[in-house]
């Protein structure tokens, strides 16, 4: 993970935590934890790193300014299933096993506070972007509730019940004025609450089939995109909380105004004059590795469609990934039963702009935090970049098979982390001179 200030890069392997300089990758600090690290997180001011060891029920905190200082939090027999920083970077929130309680530990005063009855759901704790308020999903007496706390003193501000059968997740709008709460996939319901607990609106697209699969706020808080199991995205506006458009994901792209970039592999041509046997390792890797590039397909285009298995839990159907670009102009989506395609919608026109058709299944995508530029990975050794100017395929140089399963942009947009199962590398992007 990059530190929030962008200066450092933390990585863990087994029980060791390594902190490097983000620009030179030089090692700055080495820390050894008690057990295998399962989760790391930077504090908001980039001064501390939290290492969670869930199997042991222990959290260790390390300081970058004072390497000899460290803190150990042991939850004992209560166990540990989740750990995170508060927005001020001086409190740690630990969720115990079976979601019995959330323990708030203060690094400054060593005081402890408890939040009872947290709900075991996909996204049960949410902080506002300015760090002032925290919302917690709760389950008491077989009913769903939401509690809103003030983060500077952990006082309860509001406590109210929600009109949900089985609350699945909560998320604040970036401006911190509205809290979205959505129900389990068996019940299509999205509820929007104000900071004081008033129900502003309730949205339901249909009744009986599987419902909400994913949700994303636009950075301006003007739009709420809801991905559903019926392979559609519905976009609500922030004035009336009514639907302004419905974005469909058909298996055939027939609109002439939509650009379809198709990834094609080409085998390299072998230059016989350069061949020396045995060839050098660098030459061998360039000679015998297949390369790929994008071609623009002629519309209409039929995309690879996988029929979901209906009698299995969590069927691979519907829109499971959603993300708005930093300038609010584009929305990227992935429909799980067309697993090799990324759909990029122009939010200003509410139209489909581009489809990227990949050779492999989309593992992850993320927008550049500074400009409309999307990075995509598919579990291969290539990373794919799209911007309104066009598309590019970047081969990760290196020996062996580096399968990129996830990626993460630096806060400046100048570099990104590429992660495989047991390796990572940093991709530096050159800035164009203006």
UniProtKB/TrEMBL annotation:
Which GO terms of the cellular component aspect does the record hold?
microtubule organizing center; MWP complex
InterPro entries according to UniProt: Centrosome-WD_assoc, Quino_amine_DH_bsu, WD40/YVTN_repeat-like_dom_sf, WD40_rpt
Pfam families hit by this protein: WD40
Q: What domain of life does the native source organism fall in?
A: Eukaryota
The name on file for this protein is WRP73 protein
Gene giving rise to this polypeptide: Wrap73
């Amino acid at each position: 993970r990059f530190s929030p200030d962008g200066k450092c890069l933390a990585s863990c392997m087994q029980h060791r935590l390594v902190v490097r300089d983000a620009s030179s990758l030089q090692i700055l600090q080495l820390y050894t934890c008690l057990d295998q690290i399962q989760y790391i997180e930077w504090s908001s001011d980039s001064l501390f790193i939290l290492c969670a060891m869930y199997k042991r029920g222990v959290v260790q905190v390390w300081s970058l300014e004072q390497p000899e200082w460290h803190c150990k939090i042991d939850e004992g027999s209560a166990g540990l299933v989740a750990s995170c920083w508060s927005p001020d970077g001086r409190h740690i929130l630990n969720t115990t096993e079976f979601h019995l309680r959330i323990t708030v530990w203060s690094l400054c005063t060593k005081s402890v506070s408890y939040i009872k009855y947290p709900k075991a759901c996909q996204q049960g704790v949410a902080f506002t972007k300015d760090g002032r308020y925290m919302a917690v999903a709760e389950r008491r007496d077989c009913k769903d509730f939401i509690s809103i706390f003030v983060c500077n003193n952990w006082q309860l501000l509001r406590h109210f019940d929600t009109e949900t059968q089985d609350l699945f997740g909560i998320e604040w709008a970036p401006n911190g004025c509205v809290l979205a709460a959505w129900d389990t996939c068996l019940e299509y319901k999205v509820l929007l609450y104000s900071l004081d607990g008033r129900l502003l609106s309730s949205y339901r697209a249909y009744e009986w089939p599987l419902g909400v699969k994913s949700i994303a706020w636009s950075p301006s808080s003007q739009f709420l995109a809801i991905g559903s199991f019926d392979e559609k995205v519905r976009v609500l506006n922030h004035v009336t909380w009514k639907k302004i458009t419905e974005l469909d994901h058909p298996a055939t792209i027939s609109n002439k105004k939509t650009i379809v970039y198709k990834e094609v592999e080409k085998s390299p041509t072998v230059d016989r004059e350069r061949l020396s046997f045995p060839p050098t390792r660098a030459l061998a890797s360039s000679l015998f590795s297949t390369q790929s590039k994008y071609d623009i397909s002629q519309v209409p285009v039929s995309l690879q469609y996988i029929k979901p298995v209906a009698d299995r839990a969590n069927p691979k159907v519907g829109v499971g990934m959603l993300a708005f670009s930093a300038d609010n102009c584009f929305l990227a989506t992935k429909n799980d039963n067309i697993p090799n395609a990324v759909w990029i919608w122009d939010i200003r026109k509410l139209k489909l702009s581009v489809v990227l058709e990949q050779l492999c299944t989309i593992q992850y995508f993320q927008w550049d935090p500074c400009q409309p530029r999307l990075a995509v990975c598919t579990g291969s050794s290539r990373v794919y970049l799209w911007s309104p100017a066009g598309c590019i395929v970047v081969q990760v140089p290196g020996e062996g098979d580096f399968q990129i399963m996830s990626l993460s942009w630096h806060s400046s947009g100048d570099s990104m982390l590429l992660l495989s199962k047991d390796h990572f590398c940093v991709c530096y992007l050159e800035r164009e001179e203006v």
